[in-house]
Specification:
With 350 residues, the protein is α+β, with helices and mostly antiparallel strands. The protein is built from eight helices and 13 strands. The protein has three domains: 2-90, no CATH class; 189-282, Alpha-Beta Plaits, CATH 3.30.70; 284-350, no CATH class. It has a four-stranded antiparallel β-sheet. Strands 11-12-13 form a three-stranded antiparallel β-sheet. A hairpin with a 2-residue loop joins strand 12 (315-318) and strand 13.
Length: 350
C-alpha cells in the first residue's frame, strides 16, 4: 500500500495502531487464498474482499481523505470490538446476576421454609399457651373446689368433734345411768339372800322348805317374815348344773326378807353350815355377780389360811387390803395352791 507524499506524518503516526490491526486482519485472511490474490477490507460492508494481483510490485494508492475515512471506519470497528468485549463482560455480569438470583431464590425458599417453621412454631406456642390457659383455668377451678372441700372438711371435723364430745358426754351419762341403775338394783336386792344346794321336791312350797331349812340347819326358832320366796330359774334342762359327782345341783332359793334385821341374823348364822354343801350369800345384780364370781375362791382360800377376808359388794378385802383376782392369780401362778373357781358354797358367807 502506498500513500501520497502529501500525507502528514502526524496523521500517520496517530493511526499506527489501527493500521497494524488492519494489516493483521488482512494478512490472516489472505493466508487462506492464493499468493496471487489480494485481500482487503470493505469498510462499508465490513467484509474482507479479494482482488487478483498480477505482480508483487503492484501498489494501492489512497488519498488522504480516503485514508481518513478508512481510519474512521477502522476506529468505529474498534469501538464495536470494545462493545463486544463489554458484551462479554455483561455476559459475565449476567451470569453473576443469575447466580445471585439463584442464591436469592434459594434464600427466599429457605426464608419461606423458615417462615413456615416459624408459623408452625407459633401454632405450637399458641397451642401450648392455650393448654396452659386451660390448665390455669382448671387449676383455679380446682383451687375453688379444694377450698370448698377444705371448708367442708373443717365443717365435718367440727361436727365430728361436736358429735364425739356429745358421744363422750352420752357415754358418761350412760355410765352414770348404769351406775345409778346398778345401785337401784343393789338397793332392791339388799333385803335378799340366796340359799344354795337345798334339795328340790316336785310341787314344793319354797317358803315352807326355807323355813324348815332355817329352823333345822341354822337353829333359828323365831318366826321370820318374808316378802317373797322362789327358786332362781324355771326348771329346764338348759339351767341344770351338775356337781363333781355328776349329780344335778338344785336351783338356788331366793328369799326377800320383810325386815333387814332378820336378813342379817340369818346371813350371820351361815357359820353353822361350815362343813356342809349348803351355802348362804347376798343377792346382787348380774353385773356385780360377774365381778364377785372370780373372788369367791380367793375368799375361801384366805379364810382357810385364817386370814381376815371380807367381800363387800364387788370388792374383796384381805387383811384390810383390796385384792384383785387378776393380780392374785399372777402372784400365785405356779405355786400349786390355786383356789377352786366354783361358785359360792357353804363356807362363803359375806
Amino acid at each position: 500500500m502506498e500513500f501520497d507524499n502529501n500525507t502528514p506524518r502526524t496523521t500517520l503516526g496517530g493511526r499506527n495502531q489501527a493500521a497494524k490491526r488492519l494489516r493483521s486482519a488482512l494478512s490472516s485472511d489472505s493466508s487462506d487464498h492464493n499468493e496471487g490474490d489480494l485481500s482487503y477490507l470493505d469498510l462499508d460492508s465490513g467484509k474482507v474482499l479479494q482482488a487478483s494481483q498480477k505482480t508483487s510490485e503492484s501498489k494501492v494508492t489512497l488519498t488522504l481523505s480516503e485514508y481518513d475515512a478508512l481510519m474512521s471506519k477502522l476506529m468505529l470497528l474498534e469501538k464495536g470490538l470494545d462493545k463486544l468485549n463489554k458484551l462479554d463482560k455483561l455476559d459475565k455480569i449476567e451470569k453473576s446476576v443469575q447466580s445471585m438470583n439463584n442464591k436469592i431464590i434459594d434464600f427466599e425458599q429457605r426464608l419461606k421454609h423458615t417462615e413456615n417453621s416459624s408459623k408452625e412454631f407459633e401454632k405450637s406456642v399458641n397451642f401450648v399457651s392455650s393448654q396452659f390457659d386451660d390448665m390455669v383455668v382448671q387449676r383455679n377451678t380446682d383451687v375453688v373446689k379444694l377450698n370448698e372441700l377444705e371448708l367442708s372438711v373443717k365443717t365435718i371435723t367440727r361436727e365430728n368433734d361436736e358429735i364425739r364430745a356429745a358421744m363422750i358426754e352420752m357415754k358418761a351419762v350412760n355410765s352414770s345411768l348404769k351406775e345409778e341403775l346398778l345401785d337401784v338394783k343393789c338397793r332392791a336386792m339388799r333385803d335378799n339372800l340366796v340359799f344354795t344346794n337345798i334339795d328340790y321336791t316336785e310341787g314344793e312350797d319354797c317358803e315352807n322348805v326355807l323355813r324348815s331349812f332355817i329352823r333345822d340347819k341354822l337353829e333359828i326358832r323365831e318366826e321370820i317374815q318374808f316378802e317373797r320366796v322362789h327358786r332362781s330359774r324355771p326348771h329346764s334342762s338348759k339351767y341344770v348344773r351338775f356337781d363333781k359327782g355328776g349329780k344335778p345341783i338344785p336351783r338356788p332359793i331366793i328369799a326377800k326378807f320383810s325386815f333387814f334385821k332378820d336378813r342379817e341374823r340369818v346371813r350371820k348364822s351361815g357359820r353353822f353350815l361350815k362343813g356342809t354343801n349348803f351355802g348362804i350369800h347376798e343377792q346382787f345384780p348380774e353385773e356385780i355377780e360377774d365381778k364377785r364370781r372370780p373372788l369367791y375362791p380367793i375368799l375361801r382360800q384366805a379364810r382357810r389360811e385364817k386370814k381376815k377376808a371380807v367381800l363387800v359388794k364387788d370388792k374383796l378385802y384381805v387383811e384390810g387390803e383390796e385384792v384383785k383376782a387378776d393380780a392374785y392369780h399372777i402372784k400365785n401362778k405356779g405355786q400349786g395352791n390355786q383356789p377352786n373357781t366354783d361358785g359360792p358354797h357353804s363356807q362363803v358367807s359375806a
